[in-house]
Amino acid sequence: MTRTIVASAVPVTLLGGAQTAAPEVEIALSRAPRLVAIDGGADTALGLDLRPEAVIGDMDSISDAARRAFADRLHRIEEQDTTDFDKALRSVAAPLVLAVGVTGGRFDHELAVMAVLAAHPDRPCIVLGAETIVCLCPARITLDPGAGAPVSLFPLAPCRVASSGLRWPTEGLDFAPDGRIGTSNAATGPVTLAPDAAKMLLILPRAALDALIAGLATARGWG
To answer: Does 78 have pLDDT greater than 60?
Structure first.
């Protein structure tokens, strides 16, 4: 059962427990000013002298110091079949979520994050990585990452995607995780994407963050 813990009219930053430098968090907060920590992300917030509005998770990673500091805003969700990122994302109602510190260096964590994006297509979310950003592609989006910018598409299930503005058009192609994928494409100008299912990841360079935020603001979503 999903319960909204934080409802916001402005974008929200989700801060996970993976190692994250202060500038990374500042980038997110400058665009998504309300802060929610995910379990051990409370320790990252504490170390950066930040005070999240809520701490969400099963609380198996948070330190005693962070528990004491944020005792009045801990929201424990005891589920063993969902990740803390899943718990937090579905508990935040906002026009956009920027997630930082949720991947780290573990492939299993990164794959789990991608699965959560697909599980909640009604929750627009951009995950910030060290060099790239990723979101679940909405039903239709137009954005301008700049001519020549890398644009990668990765299907989490069989799907198709209509497009314009890509060096290699995708119209009529069948994509699948064990078949054709769409990585290492590039923009020739403004890009429009329209997948036929909520199963396509859109991956862009970090420099395209503002372009993606602008595109999502006017995109047709899946909700």
So the answer is: yes
